[in-house]
Amino acid sequence: MKKWTRKQTADVVMGIILQILFFIPWMNCEGKRYTMHGYLVKVLLNNDYVETYDKFFYPNLQEIQKYTRPIATVFLLVILFLIIVQIIESVHLYMSCQGEKFPQIQEVIWIMIMIAAFLLSNLSYNEKTMKTYVSSSSYIYVFLILIIEGIWIFIGRWTELWDEQEAEHEIQIRKKEQEVLELKVEILEARYQGMLKGHKVVHDMKNHLLALKKYDQERDWKGLHKYLDELSDEMLEPDFSIWTGNKILDMILNQKKKEAKEAGILMHIQTEGVTKLPFTDREIVSLFGNLLDNAREACEKIKDEKRWIYIKMIKRNSLLYIAVENSVPRNLVSESGQWISDKKEPELHGYGMQNIRDIVEKYEGDFSCDVDHKHFIASISIYDM
Fold first, then answer.
1. What pTM does this model have?
2. Percentage above 70 pLDDT, the chain
3. Separation of alpha carbons 97 and 113, rounded Å
4. What was the pLDDT predicted at 347?
5. 3-state helix, strand, coil in the chain (%, to 5)
6. What is the number of other CB atoms lying within 10 angstroms of the CB of residue 19?
7. Domains in the chain, ordered, with CATH?
8. Residue 60 burial class via C-beta count within 10 angstroms: exposed 0-12, middle 13-18, buried 19 and up
């Protein structure tokens, strides 16, 4: 069974509340309580809506029909309109339970109810008698429906936005998971290619030794060093240069260091006492992926200065401290020291930072960012109990 969204849950709860309100017997006639549906039935049975209105609300006043006819007409129209609203909202409730989307017409309904309340208020007053011919219970009932409908609209829009943000959050997480899978494939392919290179070099080792002996006999030291450098590059497998003890973290750090090197960015990583992290593999990918992507993208905007990223991970007793520091372009830091984002899609940057905060908060840690005219630093502190 598909999990309900917050919007769906809100629609069902508010729909039930509104339906309960529609069935409240708030009118009294001859010692009996009636709902708005009962009032409509009474009108049909009596075949006189003005007389029915007077019996319900002014049973003890004589010759009042000439004063209540206008408001009785409006009141009957309001009751008919509210019954139509109930039918519409019943369909809304049913579609919400089924997980189907309902047309966005609640704002129109709310405005129509507001107009109905306005008509009741303004047409109930008679200038000749200087009296109001609408009961307070009618006002209260209509305004309760108006308030409930308004709250429903507000909660519906808020939960819908919440669901959209969560969906975007999930997309970002899935994207990071996909990056991990692609990274694993890339590493396996690189290792396989390294194995092939090593096999080829071993197979040609006799020829390489003859070439080295020739350089030695001719005392061509420059040529010998060049040949050895080329042979070393060919023999050495492009394997990991960073080892933390966590396979997923190692893959992320080595891949990000490779990307930084290709972009001309110096990346230095310092780890101390980090043998185990409290995060899941997916959280490691999201956390370090977002931190390092943000740092690299900031460095790539620097044109004429040194570009660097410094990563520090320290575990002391139960405290895990992670810091990612990077150089920043001067034109993206204001005089007050605030970071000015120039991303084409700033909302994605926001989701990335939110992912980091969500993970840190899950483990009751602290996440902070600081920036000055030279560098940006994001730091995380978590007590790993």
1. 0.53
2. 72
3. 25
4. 42
5. 60, 15, 25
6. 13
7. 6-171 (no CATH), 243-383 (3.30.565.10)
8. exposed
